[in-house]
Structure formats: C-alpha cells, structure tokens
Design a protein that fits this description.
signal, mainly alpha, 99 residues, gibberellin signaling pathway, Gibberellin-regulated family protein
C-alpha cells in the first residue's frame, strides 16, 4: 500500500510540474500587451545565437523577433513549436526570419 501511495504522489507532482511548464510557455507565446512581463531579449538571443556562424546577423534577427513576440525558443536551434509567434514570422521572400 505504501508503494502505491508513493507512486500516486510522484504522479501528482509530475502532473503539477508539467502543468506549470505548459503555463509558463503559454504565457511566453502570447503577444506583448498590458500586464505581460517582457523577457530579457538580449540575454535570450545571446544564448540562442551562441553557436551561429554569423552571430551578428543572428542577433539582429533574433532580437527583432523577440521584441515582436516576447518569446525566444530554448536552445541554439529548433524548438520553434514552443513559440508559435516566433516561428511564424517570415521575410518578404517567404523564408523564416527568426533563427
């Protein structure tokens, strides 16, 4: 019985942490408006572009996207699904703008 309770408690904690993470990412993906806390675009983009072959170009594009969306996906590449606004911005030529 104790093992069942400990597993149930573990699952409850895991559920709470997952719900919290989803809430945090959903808040980052919203458009910037009243009452929304702006993130540190410079710091997030510096990390995002740290392995880029063209860091100045990457930083300029990343900061532009971050200021518009108030979101930068984690990591140095990919993870665009965590910031839908960031992933949907394109150039005039139809290519993805945000690194």
């Amino acid at each position: 019985m104790a093992i069942f309770r400990s597993k149930l408690f573990f699952l409850l904690i895991l559920f709470c942490l997952t719900t919290y993470e989803l809430h945090v990412h959903a808040a980052e993906a919203t458009q910037v408006g009243e009452g929304v806390v702006k993130i540190d675009c410079g710091g997030r983009c510096k990390g995002r572009c740290s392995k880029s072959s063209r860091p100045n170009l990457c930083l300029r594009a990343c900061n532009s996207c971050c200021y518009r969306c108030n979101c930068v996906p984690p990591g140095t590449a990919g993870n665009h699904h965590l910031c839908p606004c960031y992933a949907s911005i394109t150039t005039h030529g139809g290519r993805l703008k945000c690194p």
